[in-house]
Amino acid sequence: MDERLATNRANWNERTPVHAASEFYDVEGFKKGRITLTDIERREVGDVSDKTLLHLQCHFGMDTMSWSRLGAKATGVDISDTAIDLAHSLNDEIGTDARFIRSNVYDLPDVLDEEFDIVFTSVGVLNWLPDLDKWASVVHRFLRPGGTFYVLDIHPFIGIYEEDDSGDIRPTYDYFHQQFYSEGNHQTYTGGDSIASPVYEWQHSLGDIVTALTTSGLIIEYLHEFPMSFVHAFSSMTKHKDGWWRFPERNDSFPQIFSIKATK
Q1: In the chain, is it the N or the C terminus that has fewer CB atoms within a 10 Å radius of its CB?
Q2: What is the pLDDT of residue 250?
Q3: The total number of structural domains that make up the chain
Q4: DSSP letters along the chain, please?
């Protein structure tokens, strides 16, 4: 395995118990029946009843099991050992029939030989992948002819901005492809205990993402952009009743997340 992915596996192994204990993930609410998928995902993916669904980078599987609750025959895949162990435990506890496999995306063809109606990935995923062309080829490999690929993720445009102490948001970082390395001892997006392990991340432009998918042979049905966030990305954001984070004065001024739907 690429040593950078091995580094990230160790980081996510350490993150998983912190995330599972956080208010952000609300595992207890999930156990009581909460569907963790966003309104956008449910609307744009559509009815999954009796469809086979492959969820790439599923973390500890609550979205995968939510698709199972909605009728899909769902398989979740993640790089982290502790995440997949927790996914198996939750799956057994709540009685869903999802399947989970521990693998990084790039090695998945070595351990799984199937095709799916839907390949799905969502919420903070592409920044963990160094090679989008290889990623897109894996997506294509696991879709049946006529199958659907769907991604909802953080818009790369938002990654160039930083908020100063006065609340002003200014372009600070490069938009185009680059690699970041972060030393350990930092908090994850859920808060809680600091994570000691270092981590690698990658910035990919929207052009990188679209080109990788089309080059793989997929046909893009749409690219949608939205002016809200999954998380409290900037201090001036407030959380609305629908669960999305928005700027109080810049509500619709620039994209913060995007979705792509494509077919094979």
Answers
A1: N
A2: 62
A3: 1
A4: --HHHHHHHHHHHHHHHHHHTSTTT-HHHHHTT---S-HHHHHHH---TT-EEEEES-TTSHHHHHHHHTT-EEEEEES-HHHHHHHHHHHHHHT---EEEE--GGGGGGT----EEEEEEESS-GGG-S-HHHHHHHHHHHEEEEEEEEEEEE-GGGGGEEE-TTS-EEE-S--SSEEEEE-SSB--TT-SSPB-S-EEEEE--HHHHHHHHHHTT-EEEEEEEES-BSS--STT-EE-TTS-EE-SS-TTSS--EEEEEEE-
Q: What is the dihedral of CA 154, 130, 42, 232, to 10 degrees?
A: -30
Distance, CA of 215 to CA of 237 (rounded, Å): 37
pLDDT at 42: 98
CATH number of the domain within which 237 lies: 3.40.50.150
Nearest CA to 259 out of 65, 120, 51 is that of 120
Q: Which of 258, 232, 257, 259 is nearest to 245 (CA)?
A: 232
100: domain range? 3-263
Q: Residue 100: left (phi > 0), alpha (psi -120 to 50), or beta?
A: beta
Parts of the chain with a pLDDT under 50: none
